[in-house]
Amino acid sequence: MKKVSFNMIRSAGIKTDYAKPEYYFDQLDKVRAADLVLFPEYWMVNSIIYGMNKAIFPSPATYHLGHDKIEMTRAFKATYPHRIPKTLIYGKNPYTIERVLEEFHYPFVAKKAKSSMGQGVWLIKNDQDWLEYVENHDTFYVQEFIPNDRDLRIIVIGEEVVGAYWRVSEAFLNNVAQGANFSYEDIPEDVVQEVQSIANTLSINHAAFDVIVTEEGFYILEFNVFFGSEGLLPLGVKLPQKIEEYLNSLG
């Protein structure tokens, strides 16, 4: 299988040709000659899969759902509604500003539709916090706040989970970029297996799922298409190797 990648860092260790995103339209011959295009920029995806009829990795579903929390949530609500926290998505108007406060008590979580690494997520604790969010967003993405000191990160490559670990923090965000620590004890394998099944159902093949586990069950907060792999190192997992194994299995 002939491959071309648009991301040298994420493709390090994978046998592939390379192309630069900034010169995309000057390197279309490389795309046309490839059987598989690795890690294109999001803005390239439609022209590659629809214009040139080429397969991509991560999958189209991974890109399209992972690019926008709103579309991601809608997909989860349509397929696994019991696995996401209560979530409301509204356009901004006087009615919806009040409706959110009728549906949620403080504190609750508000997010930006497109963000990662713990950015664009706020804990709304009072009227002032809410009005500041309202002022800066035309679309509301608000979610039930589930108190916790950790979340479970589950990393899916291809059709399997390659690693899972806790991200532990006393702060609101359990994100390593925001100061969280790793823990590898007492990983709930039933949760890991179900998240793997959910990923396979939605054709998500390169993602880090962030999950909160409670006594009542577990809830998927979101998944990230591009994620850090430092949490896999203590597990002995080499991400490029896992990716290449999966790509080679495709034939």
Structure characterization notes:
With 251 residues, the chain is of the alpha+beta class. Helix content is 30%, strand content 27%. The protein has eight helices and 13 strands. The strands form three sheets. It has a five-stranded antiparallel β-sheet. Strand 9 and strand 10 form a beta hairpin. The longest helix is centred in the C-terminal third of the chain and has 13 residues, at 189-201. Keywords: ATP-binding, Nucleotide-binding. Residues 74-251 form the ATP-grasp domain. InterPro entries: ATP-grasp, ATP-grasp_RimK-type, ATP_grasp_subdomain_1.
Shape: globular
Task: Give the number of DSSP strands.
Answer: 13
Structural class, by secondary structure, is alpha+beta
| Mean pLDDT figure | 92
Radius of gyration: 19 Å
* Biggest sheet architecture: 5 strands, antiparallel
Count every helix, treating DSSP H or I runs of 4 or more residues as helices.
Answer: 8
Which strand order do you get reading across the main beta sheet?
A: 11-10-9-12-13
Helix content: 25-40%
What portion of the residues fall into strands of 2 or more residues? 25-35%
Note poorly predicted spans. none
CA distance, first residue to last residue: 7 Å
H/E series = EEHEHEHHEHEEHEEEEHEEH
